[in-house]
Protein 1
Amino acid sequence: MFFERPKSGECAILVHMNLAAAADQESPKELEELALSAGADPVEFLTGSLGHPNPKFFIGQGKLEELKTLVDHHDAQVVIFNHALSPAQERNIEREIQCRVLDRTGLILDIFAQRARTHEGKLQVELAQLDHMSTRLVRGWTHLERQKGGIGLRGPGETQLETDRRLLRARMKSIHKRLEKVRKQRDQGRRSRKRAEVPTLSLVGYTNAGKSTLFNALTASEVYAADQLFATLDPTLRRIDIEDVGPAILADTVGFIRHLPHKLVEAFRATLQETIEATLLLHVIDCHDDDRHEHVAEVEHVLGEIGADEVPVLEVYNKIDLLEGREARIDRNEEGKPIRVWLSAVAGKGHELLFQAVNELLADDVYHDSVTLQSSEGQFRARLYDSGAVLSEQMDENGSIVLEVRIQKKDMLQILSHLGMPQERCFPVEVNPY
């Protein structure tokens, strides 16, 4: 009711100013990609330098006249700024150029609105949109003033603007309640996975790094994947099997972007919870992108914002098929642990290396060994079978039972503790895991 949704192919003028006072500039190339992802047709790019933003129009009077000329020349339907504009600045520019104006946050919100597929995703986007638009409602009601007293002029006690704000707050409150219900359902699912000791791998990374393509390749799924920003919005979970670990959950999540609006970070906190509570993060990086270092830093910043900076990370350098002479490989640290995997999700190169690296990192918590049991240890044998830990059983030449066992280390320690057996029975003192 409050939103104007652009139609595909709208003629758009893009505006990017290099701000002398800003240490961290936005990318003009990224603005163009965002506009294309939203379905706009960029026809002109207005650029320039600015010492300080103009409080009234953000840009100077000269640039404003230039912008107005471009809008008239191309008969543009929308002007998109690569900056955050105040509600007053948006309103003032619109009044001058007689054209709809969107800032960077409004553009990202519109893309999210187009991509949302699930009930939860749509609620989250609507909440973020309502929050963003609540300060901009005045644009539609500037002709209405508080009604004065007098015969025929007495109103209901509030302006139309105040009525809309009240309705908007009520709608936001309703969405918060519905999202809280969804959060509880998600928490229940996560608790179930934790009880079953099923590890979760969460794909994170800058938008358009290839997360969904890799997700589809690893899980044989058909999640929507496209060469555009924010192709994935709703989280998707699939089960995969890892050799020495067993079943695991792979989660595909929304991509990050420079200066992701705080409204979106807050609205999507339930979705990003899959990232916060993951066992291992797979940070997918487009190795062919010239700005990859800045993108990596931005992802790490967002992970810190949502409280996921303590979760172990394995870097996945994707799209090696676009680099000449680059082969799939695993990079390791001084201790020999995998820290980076080079692969191509599209070409199918290096998938087995990624599984190998994940296996090595997660298998640290898995006890996989042969256990020799004496005839008096039948209870120990029964507990191992009850836990589903026994892979094979055979007799040795002395008549003892030899079991091949694979189980989480903490579960093995728990069994030993319940039976009153020392940890050294299975864990030598020098490699005691706890």
Note: The two ends are 58 Å apart (CA to CA).
Protein 2
Amino acid sequence: MSKSMSFEEPIIKLRQKIEELRELAKSADVDMSEEIRTLEERLHQLELKIYSNMEPWDRVQVARNPERPTTLDYIEKIFTDFIELHGDRCFGNDEAIVGGIAFFDGQPVTVIGHQRGKATKENIRRNFGMPHPEGYRKALRLMKQAEKFRRPIICFIDTKGAYPGKAAEERGQSEAIARNLFEMAGLKVPVICVVIGEGGSGGALALGVTNRIYMLENSTYSVISPEGAASILWKDAALAKQAAEAMKITAQDLKKMGIIDEIIPEVTGGAHRDPETQANILKQYLKKGLDELSAMSEEEIIRDRYEKFRKIGDFIEESV
């Protein structure tokens, strides 16, 4: 058990104890149902207590859980007839971003999102969910295609940030991100974004210029990781927990500041505990957002997006 996940340690130990009792009851042919029921009730109460009092750093750890549902997981559970499209028509195909056409409750939509892996081999293949410029150019190509055929766009954000390597910079990483920000601002179709895990820096914002921004309850959205901020501010990445608290990166903080529109509740313990139920909850928020935006004209959609970002950072001066 790593120190970073220590807040969940009592829950994990109790789950292990329950499993041990089940195995013992099965192998020894002994009725231990009452003892197991008692421990399960204790586990339920413990989960409610711990998960309802999470600190920002705790939420960072849940957002990074390797079993947390990814973009492709949500696409499989929420959409139908998904056809993945590849390549930026310029350099190549970046597997850190996936996208394509699908149906949402019978309505054709374009779905785009960061894609990380759940195991080492897949993470290497997906570059740990950190896109190269061709990934952002692929995303923009699909967005412009969606605009041409008047399809709403749904984006899933889940990245530590854009890949900072030499090759990415040589191929125009910053220009690709800037181009996405510029083009997304003027899209004439509804755009909805959901932060499903980590939303880091410009790598996240390149898919985040939208009409509606939702965040899963235990996701994060920030200009830099807590470790990166701690390294800059205090020259010590070990102070990441302190940085997470100061940065206001949780959904709860961002909702209070008006940066996001809605917090999507997660199942107890995090989205990875019950992906099926979590997908159904997320689907209801997407449906609500699409219903609101579909009633707008093209001009109203662009104006709505402009006003959304124009209001971020508003403040009122009070005379002393």
Note: The two ends are 51 Å apart (CA to CA).
Protein 3
Amino acid sequence: MKTFLENFFKLKENNTTVKTEILAGITTFMTMAYILIVNPAVLSDAGMNHGAVFTTTAISAFIATVVMGIYANYPFALAPGMGLNAYFAYTIVLGKGLSWQFALTAVLIEGLIFIVLTMTKVRETIVNSIPMSLKNAVSAGIGIFIAFIGLIQSGLVVPAKGIPLTLGNIMSPVAILTIFGIFITLFLLVKRIPGGILLGMLITTLLAIPFGVTKLPSSIIGLPSSISPIFFKFEFHNILTFNMVIAIFAFLFVDLFDTVGTLVGVASKADMLDENGNLPKARQALLADAIGTSIGACLGTSTVTTFVESAAGVAEGGKTGLTAIVTAILFIVALIFEPIFAIIPPCATASALIVVGLFMIGNILKIDFSDFTEGLPAFLAIIMMPLSYSIANGIVFGIVSYAIIKLITGKGKQVSLVVYILAIIFVLRYIIEAFI
């Protein structure tokens, strides 16, 4: 079996081992297991059955991540995306007063459009057209972004009256455990102990029990809920409506550039880009995303996308699709062991995300900030990700500013036609949104 895995996933060629890939897969799962709790909570606000969404979240994550692992042989995991599920529930359904069946129809159409765009290499062309300075900026920006997510989860950073953010209560149990988790994880990494990030999360989780931050489950296993209340529930009669067009466009935009940003950023840090700065097998990776979204809509969940938490598995040494397969299997296991996975506290995932943020930001050293035409767009891409709470927005600011500053400084010929087209589309998108 070990030999089969080494040959199928080309482990020796990628300088990794079965043990490393398994640890990386477990680490990725633990950092993104929160989606099994959060996604049902968000979509149930839109009127969907909570238990059914939990089951569908796990199944759709499993299917999409398996496709990624086998077809693309990349260590990236997929699941219904945060932000996209919020747009689904709070903007389309609750905000516009439309049904969740309407929103699912928009997600299905988006997924099918992405399959077509991926097969025709449109999405791959977009990925490869992003300048190398921006690819490194995206990686660094994602590092700050996921560290910021960790700081919010832990309560170390909180909203404040009169100012956007301030320091939280650092003496709260969650904050103390998060800080401890950061230092114990870094200690394990410095000592080169295998599975340092995962062990740090496990130790933090165990310590959270006597602190009262989490508690042992009353039961260990349970049968998964049926997905029949949300399975294949579409409103095809509304396909040609204006609201449907707007919803599909919004899903397409955010999903495309969240996925592109994650793939480019994490792959850049993992040294998966080729000598031209392109991502080999980008089409296969993007197709996994498109298939996941289409199948996820049929099962009854919002847009499936590549998770930035995949960086945690990469930081643990994951380099191939075996990492993704391990993560996928754990999503299926979670269906019957929901109570166990539910005890992982925010402080455990927060400390891991902050450490991974440190791991990701290193690519900022590869950016030539002395060349303002490269440095300014990179800077905007980096800071806009955490400040706008969106990978997609960071990419937009990076690409639009890159096209403009190159053009006005007489270096327009250095920019590909695709980048100019993207910049125009981005600007038009925000103009249209401003008047809708």
Note: The chain has one domain: 1-360.
